[in-house]
Amino acid sequence: MKFLIINGPNLNLLGRREPGIYGEENYESLCARLRAFAAAYGSTAECFQSNHEGAIVDAIHAADGVYDAIVMNPGAYTHYSIAILDALKAVSVPCVEVHISNVHQREEFRRRSVTAPACVGQICGLGLYGYEAAMGYFLGKK
Ligand code: DQA
Questions:
Q1: Which end of the chain, N or C, is less surrounded by CB atoms within 10 Å?
Q2: pLDDT band at residue 37, thresholds of 50, 70 and 90?
Q3: Predicted TM-score of the model (pTM)
Q4: 3-state class of 52 per DSSP?
Q5: Beta strands across the sheet bearing 2-7
Q6: Which pLDDT does position 75 carry in this prediction?
Q7: What residue's CA is closest to ligand 1, atom 7?
Q8: Is there a contact between 11 and 76 (Cβ–Cβ < 8 Å)?
Q9: Domains by residue range for the chain, with CATH
């Protein structure tokens, strides 16, 4: 399978950003781990990160017909980006939404995802393992 891993704003700061919530592993290490995980299953994973909503919309559009699955952590855009919701609805690539933290144990505003309705499902609170769990879901379906 060809995976596209999309990470939204501030996730480039993994390892430095609120490590008590998001852990100590950095973004590059996460990507290396996901590429290795994919390779172990004869698959590929490409990582894309942006702090800009439009760039994420563009990446979703460009994924159509190119990738088999998207694993996306939209970061704070989760809670208000109708543009990302619409982009996911506009393409036929299935997406699983991932949140590193348990958004239900945090501020009220983090409980609502406007993007999840366009996803197959949502994983939260499992730390960085959530990305692998999402990939495992797709691998089990192929
Ligand atoms: C997050 C949760 C969001 O509320 C937050 O804005 C993030 C990260 C998570 O992975 O837990 O940037 O998506």
A1: C
A2: very high
A3: 0.97
A4: coil
A5: 44-49, 2-7, 69-73, 95-99, 121-124
A6: 98
A7: 75
A8: no
A9: 2-141 (3.40.50.9100)
